[in-house]
Amino acid sequence: MSQFRVLAGVLKCGGRHLLPWRGGGLTQRCWADPKRGCSSRTDPLPAVVSSSRYVEEMYFAWLDDHKNVHESWDSFFRNIQASTPSGEADERRPSALLQGRMMSHSLDMAQKVVEDHLAVHTLIRAYQIRGHHVAQLDPLGILDADLDSFVPSDLITTIDKLALSGLYGLDESDLDRSFQLPHTTFIGGQEMTLSLREIIRRLEASYCGHIGVEFMFINNVDQCQWIRQMFETPGIMQFTNTEKRTLLARLIRSTRFEDFLARKWSSEKRFGLEGCEVLIPALKTIIDSSSGAGIDSVIMGMPHRGRLNVLANVIRKDLDQIFCQFDPKLEAADEGSGDVKYHLGMYHERINRETDKNITLSLVANPSHLEAVDPVVQGKTKAEQFYRGDTQGKKVMSILMHGDAAFAGQGVVYETFHLSELPSYTTHGTIHVVVNNQIGFTTDPRVARSSPYPTDVARVVNAPIFHVNGDDPEAVMYVCRVAAEWRATFNKDVVIDLVCYRRFGHNEMDEPMFTQPLMYKQIRRQEHVLKKYSEKLIAEGVVTLQEFEEEVAKYDKICEEAYTSSKDEKILHIRHWLDSPWPGFFTAEGEPKSMSCLPTGLDEEVLQHIGQIASSVPLEDFKIHPGVTRILRGRADLVKNRQMDWALGEYMAFGSLLKDGIHVRLSGQDVERGTFSHRHHILHDQEVDRRICVPMNHLWENQAPYTVCNSSLSEYGVLGFELGFAMASPNALILWEAQFGDFHNTAQCIIDQFISSGQAKWVRNNGIVLLLPHGMEGMGPEHSSARPERFLQMTKDDPDHIPDISGDFEVQQLYDCNWIVVNCSTPANYCHVLRRQILMPFRKPLIIFTPKSLLRHLDARSSFDDVAKGTKFKRLIPNEGPASQSLGQVKRVIFCTGKVYYELAKERKRQNLDRDVAIIRLEQISPFPFDLIREEAEKYTNAELVWCQEEHKNMGYYDYVRPRFLTVVANKKPIWYVGRDPAAAPATGNKSTHLNELKKFMDTAFNLSAFQDRNL
Ligand SMILES: Cc1ncc(C[n+]2csc(CCOP(=O)(O)OP(=O)(O)O)c2C)c(N)n1
Ligand SMILES: [Mg+2]
To answer: Is any atom of ligand 1 closer than 6 Å to the C-beta of 440?
Structure first.
């Protein structure tokens, strides 16, 4: 008895299936019709199976002329004839077949033939849908890649079950009958019919071998057909001897590289690739195929596993540069912390040997935080596509590698997938490769995920998933080739699930037998893939043993020589591991070309022009909402009066940078209109669907493009993406705006691991801007605080030391900091700081706490004079008003930042204390303007110093500014605190408590004896 596994679908509905018209298009299905050959699609469903009258009609038409009916009916009636018992030979004449007893007999038979055809079609479909469940994916043969150790009840694994199950109504006697193949299969090759035996054999080969294809959930017939063709066409998975030899050579490099490291540094952590050595040839195949399709830049992101091997054998980082990193005496040449060797990035331009074309490969540096790099890679890829005009992703692409546990467990994977099809975020298809070693550190997949496969997350975007047994290098190569072709054809994501194992512990020091005893018993028995594959090729006569050994020896020699030369390296230059060089921006040594900032002030003419566009609709016949008309009219009035509110200040900054060729990209939730409806950077025609106007793109003829895009509702993914976008070029202002500042904490990993510490770890600048709406306005614990304390806690300036205040101190301080934290109180200052971001000779992340109520506050407006030529960003705004005229009389100097200034100024006026109290605004909080603070503190000789904030005492800015103030005054004076009391939640949810708190701290702020009897 042949041991076929037969997959059954749901045959109960068999009679509802259609017979295909093979001559039709991919999606066309027709009912056979004796007269027209094909009926219209609206014909009622004929009871093909149940109505013998219909069969009769077909039969008579067929008797007239076999060509009258569709070929499937032709084949069907021929079958009837062929299967009529021999004793009835005379009656086999067509006329006799429909007479009397024979006629009913034949109709019964016809019915069976139709049912059998439908059953076979269902069977084919079942393999296509569920074949991967029984594919031989696990090289160890102990865990199933899909975690299901049982075969679902509708799967029939042996031919006797075929008969027993009754699901199909087929049995062994049907195995040699011919069946018409539907157009949804390619197993026939050139053949239209095959025997059942052959159908099953071919389906088994296509779907149940070392490749499991998950794709039938894709809602696109063409894409499904394409995949079926790629995996079903007989003989399609073939390799030339040259290809096999290349594959072997790559496997040798991959394997021997790990062996070499293990020999030389047996106790060093390197997160070796042993058990998934096939990853290297896999990646190289993807790159070869993609290069062949026109790709010339590949941006990659990957975790720890096999990273050194990828650097060595895919990106081709010099081996001695890798080896020298194992030397504990190697000194660091660059400032900053640097990073461990398996986190560093790389950028390399080379010729692809297979295609003879140039290709640039970059691996983005990343933190330990698994999957965090995914959106960053996508952002960088999108940026490169954007700046190169590669609108279809035909030149630049990304490859993301993942561990099985992290791919299933980390939410950012899902967030990144959801960017994949969005117009302003798509990279036109990413190839994902999962190193599925069926373990995460010590954790078994059976307790690490609820989904059958680690890759199920990819189904949400209809990405096909190719599971493949990592011990079958040719199957892996094939799958990689198909994935690359898929991306080139459809520009959509695709996942390769490399099912493999981890030969040793999580790292080289771990003992895996503690926790996975049975798995590791099996692993110890497992032959190395290189051994298996080399023996296979030797047996096939593709290579000789001698050739194989020579290839091994050749690579070992390369490693030894690199090892020797690596000993000459005494200094490690992290800048040699830069993933995103900015040619021409820095000097050859990587230093800024100057240490001054270009002027940020603007010509009146430029201000007027931007103001005019910002308050108009540059397209003809474009009907905007009356509310927007009012907003634009309001803007026009402001411009007429040479004034600007917050939105206009932003417009001035963006517009003027665009004029100078700087691309501006603003991304985040609802940024197009603005959460607070103040921005309106995209106008919507009220009568024509999807007709929009972006006035900012109508400013000047040769301006740079402005991109403003509402994002998906994700912070982690989108902020990571924008950070990556900002990596690609220094000549772009990339801004991410949080809906409310609080929500940035769901992107905390990007902020901690990349933004605040990225330069220290990877010597790369990044000028990303975070706009974080912030302010205590009675909106409750959320929607109030952007948590300034957290950003300030992560700044690296020394609170106890005043830096040398000489030269261009402002720029020097900016150069030395890890990020800039500002809270502007005027639109003019906001405009300046955005411009300064680009006019600085280097790039630093900029965190801006942005206002809510100030957006429309009548006092929070600036004159055009404040941004005119000769003006600049004010790190500190001194007191305005009478107190400045009689400095010695001032009793109290209140330092503050942001919106609370307006509340303080109002209260001061109300209490008539303009001469007694000076209010000074700190606009740039970090780096701390020691020079200006000192000037101000010294000016008011008789005044006490107060820090006033609206946030709670354990939050906001106080903990940051206090020690710095004390350093400025050499601890000779206290800096008193005025603000809300310490609290657990950032703000109250009760409006009256909010107002009481405000009143209480305002009273203290202007109670000039409040601190009289207080001890320090
Ligand atoms: C976000 C995050 N959480 C936890 C860790 C600690 N950690 C490092 S590797 C690892 C297991 C990863 O398993 P998998 O993704 O399957 O990759 P593998 O090591 O098996 O290649 C864990 C939990 C981490 N690096 N990042
Ligand atoms: Mg794993």
So the answer is: yes
